Threonine dehydrogenase (Actinopolyspora alba), 700 residues
Amino acid sequence: MKATLLHGPKDIRVGEVPDPTLRESTDAIVRVTHACICGSDLWPYRGVGLGPDDGSAAEPQRIGHEFLGVVEETGSDVNSPQRGEVVVSPFTFSDGNCEFCDDGLHTSCVNGGMWGSDGVDGGQGEAVRVPRAEGTLVRLPGGSDEALSASLLTLSDVFSTGHHAAVSASVKQGSTVVVVGDGAVGLSGVLASARLGAERIVIMGRHTPRTDLAKRFGATDVVPERGAEGIERVRELTGGHGAPHVLECVGTDDSLATAVGVVRDGGAIGRVGAPTYANIPQSAEAFFRNVTISGGVAPARNYIPELLPDVLEGRVQPGLVFDKAVGLDDVADGYRAMHEREALKVLVRP
Amino acid sequence: MKATLLHGPKDIRVGEVPDPTLRESTDAIVRVTHACICGSDLWPYRGVGLGPDDGSAAEPQRIGHEFLGVVEETGSDVNSPQRGEVVVSPFTFSDGNCEFCDDGLHTSCVNGGMWGSDGVDGGQGEAVRVPRAEGTLVRLPGGSDEALSASLLTLSDVFSTGHHAAVSASVKQGSTVVVVGDGAVGLSGVLASARLGAERIVIMGRHTPRTDLAKRFGATDVVPERGAEGIERVRELTGGHGAPHVLECVGTDDSLATAVGVVRDGGAIGRVGAPTYANIPQSAEAFFRNVTISGGVAPARNYIPELLPDVLEGRVQPGLVFDKAVGLDDVADGYRAMHEREALKVLVRP
């Protein structure tokens, strides 16, 4: 079958790989109908963390961790989902019954892991062997409704991650929220905050098409300024003291420092931007102002059952973050477009 | 009157200062009967943050932020406490009616501040001018009961700070807790956790007299090992995954890294050790394991009304952290003893 392979920095191609087969009785094979490219896929695409020294991958690496598809085959211990059912996969697999899954923290599952890691398929291909299929996959009862597919696919990662940021920052009915970052995760954070009843949502971002979508998702204010100026502007908008709930959706030193700068004393930052910083900055400021830093990698599997009805019934349309679609053969163009910020988020149709 | 003055690194003396007088109608004058030395007083004592270049103070600096005493005089806008009443002061002053005080975050009071800062008396002296007296001071209804004085004094900072660590780490009935550090704050964190109903309390510390007191306060396990070895030992004691609730009561890079190492995925660290680190370490590990980092400077004023009855009725005895008492004239010996770890915490009797 065909799958996306990362050969080295900015060298991404579709190539032939062996068809996936069941290895464990808890596996399933899913034929992928919809996949996509994540902001975090751009890090290895740019060479970060690839290979041991020179930045080039030792051998071509499978990639992609968001997909929706049809169950083709199941191991003998998989009772659900069944062959022919449409499923969405969270961006990590998990057994669904360890102590962490019981707590809703499927990303820490003792039998879990990441797509594309050693011996595990990536999501940007024609099919995927899904370990722990019963714990991992979520059936989509309506089957495959094309109009909804893009939004259903966001449950895999980006919308669930935005929701995790909001939950980690304790967003609730009537909240005042600041979202740092206007990437697909930031926009999803706006939508998730609005869904949870936030009254005031300030997005910090400077790309008008993106902040326009943020407004459609429920943002009430846009702050294009960055750094000290941006912090000052947000404080002006929030009565001088900042917002009690801040979603950090970028993952850099600067964005985290901005998050600390705009959060109200005693407030919480939900950080979901994959960290490119080694240490959390502004430690003393956060301490003396009693700022809580929460969040992390989103346990999407835990959130999908809660978010799914709102997507199925059209109350939220997180799939609007996709502004480009490519066939699997053109996946390299999708990466290029996201890397060059020409596209916000790219759908891949194998 | 006499007050403690810090002249330079390890040069601390009692000297004559002007008697405090009412400056604002919201002030009170408190005659200090009991004060004490805080671990955080040792930083300026050692020269950290003192003066602009050479570590020596530009002019002698007032010091001390924990005290209990008798109201001697009140400004015209102070209805309570009244002259002659015994009061305890939290380690920051606050107006009690701004939006932060309303939220219980008195350390962020818009009219608040620290003892010993510009134009504000330190607590280690014969008397103190208390700004915002009505918002700041807490009346001790029983008057001054000498047997209870030491424990009542801990409400000012150390016991309230241990309580804040436990609250910030979400300790509750039945919790498994790890306390990093066996200083007076760590021991107070043990006591506060036990008071909140924690079932298992592991203290990380290697000073037997201190860990013995920790056991008396409710610690169930003592881990003397540090670093990777200490983390390993705590994980063994907590089913392999660490504890959901960790109190960081030291404030160094190493202690915070240890806290991240011993916290269970999805758990919370309540940090109250005044940070000597610029940035919070182990950022990526905390992110991928969804560790929440909470806490900060403790809003003691918010906690005193809740903690006071248990102290007054003898259900907790936080004053056991004092293992040395000095008269005001011997305050330098108290600093020396704490600096050399000869004493855990020193009571000062003006």
Notes: The CA atoms of residues 128 and 284 of chain B lie 46 Å apart. The first helix of chain B runs from residue 42 to 45. Chain B touches chain A at residues 99-100, 103, 105, 107-108, 168, 241, 265-266, 271, 274-275, 277-284, 286-297, 299 (CB under 8 Å). The domain at 159-295 of chain B is CATH 3.40.50.720 (Rossmann fold).
